[in-house]
Write a structure and sequence with these properties.
Length: 242
């Protein structure tokens, strides 16, 4: 793939959940993790999946809607794992900041730490970090990933002074106890640059995609997290934030 090409899963021109204000959300293809609750398994594979779109095309499309991205809005790269595409995102972020005067957000699971991370963070206003589990064993078991990678990104964003939000998906019988919350908060409280810690309730809305892809869904039969329980856990962690 040439240096100007991005492997794009999809684009949302008016996203509201991926950072501050209204955002142009760019979902990039490819992810090395395999989270049991992933609702985008169709983003897992790179190669022939997704659409090849040039950086110019993405920038031009976003420019059309520039007027909508007020009050801190702008571009969010997500996925899949957007950091797989870090060197290309730098150019896009630079143009969004310098030519459009808008903000840049990375929504990442920290599955990889690219060599160019310092340069990328220089053009980044907010990193939304997915803190999946509070120990390496659960990361490995439920995501084929590693807590160490997430800690490395928390350290790096702290060093570079970049604003961070952290999110955790809470799954019944996997990470939904107050003991789990204590362990998450132990991590969160070490990082004063985290401006928001948000819990998200597990739901199975992506399950049908597994059937379409012929992949077994690991959480078959697991109920969604009850909103009342999510609210109580969120209150529990809020009360323990330093
Ligand atoms: S890191 Fe994100 S895209 Fe990758 S498997 Fe996990 S939830 Fe899915």
């Amino acid at each position: 793939m040439s240096n100007n090409n991005l492997n794009v899963h999809s684009i949302e021109s008016f996203a509201t959940l991926e950072g501050v204000g209204i955002r142009f959300a760019l979902f990039l293809q490819g992810c090395p993790y395999r989270c049991v609750y992933c609702h985008n398994p169709d983003t897992w594979y790179g190669g022939g999946r997704g659409s090849i779109v040039t950086i110019d095309e993405v920038f031009t499309k976003m420019s059309h809607y520039k007027g909508f991205y007020k009050n801190g809005g702008g571009l969010t790269v997500t996925g899949g794992e957007p950091l797989l595409h870090a060197s290309k995102i730098i150019e896009l972020f630079r143009r969004v900041r310098e030519e459009l005067g808008l903000t840049n957000t990375i929504d990442t699971s920290c599955a990889v730490m690219p060599d160019c991370i310092d340069e990328l963070l220089a053009y980044t206003d907010l990193v939304i970090i997915d803190l999946k589990f509070h120990n390496n064993a659960d990361y490995d078991k439920f995501a084929k990933g590693s807590l160490d990678n997430t800690i490395a990104m928390l350290d790096k964003t702290l060093e570079k002074g970049v604003n961070v939000w952290v999110r955790t998906v809470v799954v019944p019988d996997i990470n939904d106890t107050t003991d789990d919350m204590d362990k998450y908060i132990n991590i969160i409280n070490k990082y004063p640059h985290i401006s928001k810690y948000e819990l998200l309730g597990y739901h199975s809305m992506g399950e049908f995609k597994y059937a379409e892809l012929g992949i077994k869904y690991a959480l078959e039969g697991v109920e969604q997290l009850q909103p009342s329980k999510l609210k109580a856990l969120q209150q529990y962690v809020n009360e323990r934030r330093i």
